[in-house]
Every structure is written in C-alpha cells, then in structure tokens.
Amino acid sequence: MTPLKLITCDALVGLPRKPFAMFRPDADDLDHELARLEISAAVVRHRQCVENFPHWGNDVLAREAAGRANWIPAVCLTPDGAPDDYSLAATMVRAFASGMRIAWISPKEHMFSPRPWCSGKLYAACVAARLPLLVDYRSLTLDDVEEIMTAFPQLRLIVTQVPRFGRHRSLYALLERHPGLHLCLSSAYSVHEGLTDLVEKFGHTRFVWGTSYPEAEGGASVALLMYAALSDAARAAIAHGNIERLLAEVKP
C-alpha cells in the first residue's frame, strides 16, 4: 500500500514567551516532527509574528524556511500593511515577489477588527489574487466569519483549530451558506464520525488537514484522518490534494 502523502496546514514554529516544559518548538523540532510522522510538507506560521511584531516575524520565518523545501511559509498580514509606508498594496507586492502563496491573520493579537469595515481591503486583495487566508477559530467569532464571507464570497478563508463541539450547528450553517469557507481539521476536531459527516454533507474539497503543532501530539491528527470512514479520493484530497490545489491557483 502506498503511504498517504500528508501536508499539515497549521504548524506554528518558534519559541513562546513561556517555554513549553518538555521541548522547544523551534525549526529543528518541527523538522523532527515532520520526519517522525512522515509528513511531506507543512504550511508554517511563525510565533514571532504574534509575540513580537508581525512583519519582523515574517522576516524570521523567511530566514528559517530558507533551504527547507518542505516548508511552505505563511505570511502574516495586517490591514494597514508593513512599515514604514504602511501600504497594504506595497506589502502584498513585496510578499508576492518573495514567493507568498498563503497568508494568515491574527486579529485578536494584533488588535484589529476582522470585520470588513476594518479588514475589507485585505480580503479584497486576497480575493483578487486567489490567496488562501488562514485564521485561528479562537481569533474571531462565527458572526465575524458570516460577515466576512457575505461581503467577500470568493475569499478562500481557512479556519484552523476548529474545536470539539460534537455536531457544530453554527459551523454547519456557515458551510451551507458560504462555499468559499474551508476548515483545517486536526485532533482539535476529534468528534466521533465528525470528519465523515462533514464530507458526506459538504463534499471533500472544503477541508484540509493539520496537526495542531505544537499544541498537540501530531499522531492523534494522523489517526483522525487515517481511521475516518472516507473514500480513498476524499482522504487524499484532505491529506494533501486540496491545499496543493489552493496553492497552485494563487494568481499574484
């Protein structure tokens, strides 16, 4: 049997202010984790983007990702762009020139509203470039998601760290209303037959896979995907095919 190709979409590398007791989630540790779990590639965000300064953290990530072919750097964006010009358009041009294929926002940590009145230009830029945009479930409300997707239905929004809520009624309603909404599913969503139910109701093209690194044991996310009652085509799409397609469709 051919091993399933895995691409994790939610890795967060870098040392926190309060160290983890047992390990250091730095670049070498992430490399070890990818090798241990036989993960082919990782979409990687850098913790310095939220614990220091977003655009400086992007520079740190770029340096650490250099020479690591299995890292896919995710650029942290803010609605006002990077200093010194604070031009979102100029920031996007520079990021695309550096190879950006996926981005993320952290509105709670960076103290801006994720709603369109504040972040609309950022979403419009992502729509124009078909750029996938990651956001942690804990960084906004589902009402925020509804308002964002209503205003920008073509936005490729990927929500990570979707929690264990059993049958998540609000999330099901959002998936029904907004075809552009995607979920990154990991052990954080370890609902009994939850992944199977999502695929049966919404198809398999809306979901990507993650390990919740470094917050959780990645093997649990591997088990979630491998033991779910899915067709081979659906499992492969979630494991790697969907994120590869989204990345390939970016048009700077």
Plain-language structure description:
The protein is of the alpha/beta class and 252 residues long. The protein has a single domain (7-248), classed as Metal-dependent hydrolases (TIM Barrel, Alpha-Beta Barrel), CATH 3.20.20.140. The chain is built from eleven helices and nine strands. It has helices at 27-36, 48-51, 54-65, 88-97, 107-110, 116-129, 142-151, 169-177, 194-202, 218-226, 232-248; strands at residues 7-13, 41-46, 71-73, 75-76, 103-105, 133-136, 157-160, 181-185, 207-209. The strands form two sheets. A six-stranded parallel sheet has the order 4-5-6-7-8-9. A three-stranded parallel sheet has the order 1-2-3. Strand 6, helix 7 and strand 7 (157-160) form a beta-alpha-beta unit. The radius of gyration is 17 Å and the shape is globular. The termini are far apart. The model has no long low-confidence stretch (mean pLDDT 94).
Could you say how many structural domains there are in total? 1
What structural category characterises the helix and strand content? alpha/beta
- Binned, the helix content reads 40-55%
Low-confidence stretches: none
Give me the Rg, rounded.
17 Å
Q: How many strand units?
A: 9
CATH topology: TIM Barrel
CATH homologous superfamily heading = Metal-dependent hydrolases
3D shape: globular
Share of β-strand residues: 5-15%
CATH class: Alpha Beta
Order of helices and strands: EHEHHEEHEHHEHEHEHEHH
